């Protein structure tokens, strides 16, 4: 009986098959790695967007509920500080959320601080009762980082002019005895954050009754009563812009 010889694979065929298998595995691994990186990048962007959204909601809530309560006093001029605003710093008084406070108003600070070669938006708070700016120490503040990976930014403020009109935006609030009408926060995040920080324009929702204060001229004289307000003895008159009626006290 004649048997047909069994033909095997040559060395070249085995090497070619091994090479093709290696190329196939390398391509599959590269595709999987690219997919994993895209997923991680997408998850990181979503996480950053969520953190920014939460931070913006918190900032908007705190600033909009600012209260005209003094947290400091200039003894030389007798001016009470109710709002301090700079290009990279602002301090005001507002209530804290119930789960973060012990009740009552808190002195709150937002600051663009230089950290590790970049900038971060930091938040600090302290109870108004017993607050002493002169004895304030950095270690007592326990700052909370709200937004990181910031390339640049600034705070801006808007108030009423002498004519009762809304003024232009300015990055230095000149009168700390008054609260602004609106606050704007503009931040530019680094490219590696992969997101954009939308500009925030926050109107202050103030209790007009509590923010009014006696108005005296430079000579100490009281102004005449407002239209519709009787000028009875002992009744207090207030300087409120006539055009807006309920607005910033001048």
TrEMBL record:
InterPro entries given in the database record: N_methyl_site
Top-rank taxon: Bacteria
Pfam families, per database record: N_methyl
Stretches with biased composition (Low complexity): 232-242
Residue span of region Disordered: 213-250
Name of the protein this chain belongs to: General secretion pathway protein GspJ
Originating species: Dokdonella koreensis DS-123
Taxonomic path: Bacteria, Pseudomonadati, Pseudomonadota, Gammaproteobacteria, Lysobacterales
């Amino acid at each position: 009986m004649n048997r047909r010889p069994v033909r095997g694979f040559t060395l070249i065929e085995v090497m070619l098959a091994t090479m093709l298998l290696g190329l196939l595995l390398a391509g599959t691994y590269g595709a999987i790695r690219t997919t994993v990186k895209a997923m991680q990048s997408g998850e990181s962007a979503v996480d950053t967007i969520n953190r920014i959204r939460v931070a913006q909601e918190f900032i908007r809530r705190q600033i909009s509920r600012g209260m005209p309560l003094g947290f400091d006093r200039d003894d030389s001029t007798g001016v009470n500080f109710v709002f301090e605003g700079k290009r990279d710093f602002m301090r005001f008084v507002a209530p804290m959320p119930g789960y973060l406070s012990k009740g009552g108003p808190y002195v709150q600070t937002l600051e663009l601080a230089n950290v590790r070669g970049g900038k971060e938006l930091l938040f600090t708070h302290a109870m108004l009762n017993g607050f002493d700016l002169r004895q304030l120490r950095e270690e007592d503040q326990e700052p909370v980082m709200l937004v990181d990976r910031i390339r640049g930014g600034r705070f801006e403020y808007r108030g009423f002019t002498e004519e009762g009109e809304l003024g232009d935006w300015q990055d230095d609030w000149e009168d700390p005895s008054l609260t602004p009408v609106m606050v704007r926060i503009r931040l530019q995040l680094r490219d590696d954050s992969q997101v954009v920080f939308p500009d925030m324009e926050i109107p202050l929702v103030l209790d007009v009754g509590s923010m009014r204060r006696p108005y005296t001229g430079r000579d100490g004289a009281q102004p005449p009563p407002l239209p519709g307000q009787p000028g009875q003895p002992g009744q207090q008159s207030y300087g409120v812009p006539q055009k807006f009626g309920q607005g910033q006290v001048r």
